[in-house]
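Model: Ready when you are.
Researcher: Fold this.
Model:
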Amino acid sequence: MRCMAVLLKAKGLSVATAGSLTDMALASVNHWVKRYQAEAVSGLYTKLGQGRKPLINGTDEESVLVAIKADRQNVQVPKAAWEASSGKAVSRLTLQRLF
């Protein structure tokens, strides 16, 4: 959609028209046009570090898997133990994604 908004704007369409055709807010269209003008095509990519950081990193993942393998029938017990030792809270679904 970012590319489309920039292309529509380059064809001479108004920001409002480009925004309505791409379902983007006017401010978003302007933002991506300015980023394209400053950085060319590479400016349209999502920059690294955007979004939520993972709760469980590489070293945490190993310790969580060891704890879960020790008691596979009841994930709540190793989950509670890991949360207490790490100070982080995770959902059961987060742990399930590790398998």
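Researcher: Now this one.
Model:
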Amino acid sequence: MYKVTVTVPATTTTLGPGLGVLGMALALHTTIEMQVRADDRLHISVLGESRDMFPTTLDNPVLRAAMHVFQHFEVAPAGLQIDILSQIPWHTGLGAHPAAVLGGILAANNLVNGNLTPDQILDMAYGLGASYENTTSAMRGGVSISSRIDAHHVAHRSVDTVPLRVVIVAPEVPNYPTRLDNLPAYTLIPDEISHIGQTALLIEALRAGDYRLMKQVMKNHVHQTARTANIPGYAEAAEAAHSAGAVAVILAGSGPAVLAVAESHHTQIAEVMVSAFQEAGLEARQWILGVDRQGVTISVVE
């Protein structure tokens, strides 16, 4: 009887100008073990972060993803054991839900000796609410680019970057909106042209390790301004981070976690950002993370 173990990295998307296109895998993980039980029972155990987001029922996101795979191959394990260890906090912009979905799909696919293609995996994850840029960067590791070409194909490639370390600070913002109604429905053509150029330059900066260029182009005034308005202390935290040596400060995905890129002084940057949020009345957590360049790992043992 097989046991499948899948480890999926956290991800952050957009990276400033690359809205809906760029993603980065981070060295923070969700690990899922899945195996068929000898009896006909379902048993789910959860350890680590945000355990309330992993109910031990059919609403569990890992189980829901696995059931889509079982339905695709028309198989139905009588009993199933799922063990989840989560390091990724939910509702922060670090891709916790996509990690759970992708992990469930990959674990189930290997459990039944399935042959899902990368495109099928991406589409299945997207249908379960995981964005292409999250799942692509988690699968590939490092920094990735993804874009839907048509109704049936998503183009995606990895960006060969220098090793990076980033600071993540996640303030606890009550009632933070994961979706915003005040995001602009359209932007001016000059703004769009600017973002296209900045995205191309950012990719080159990440490849070359050009921190000076990152400082110039790693920003998105249109969408980030609308979101950061809901985060007390954001402006002060960003200013403190820059003063401590950060070259860029952006939202991690849709937030409220904040990502700071720096060549050095990461601990000091994290501390001053946490202090700024505390002065604004918010508790905050911090991580100093490398980029996960490996992406998803899968092991199958008998």
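Researcher: Key takeaway?
Model: The radius of gyration is 20 Å.
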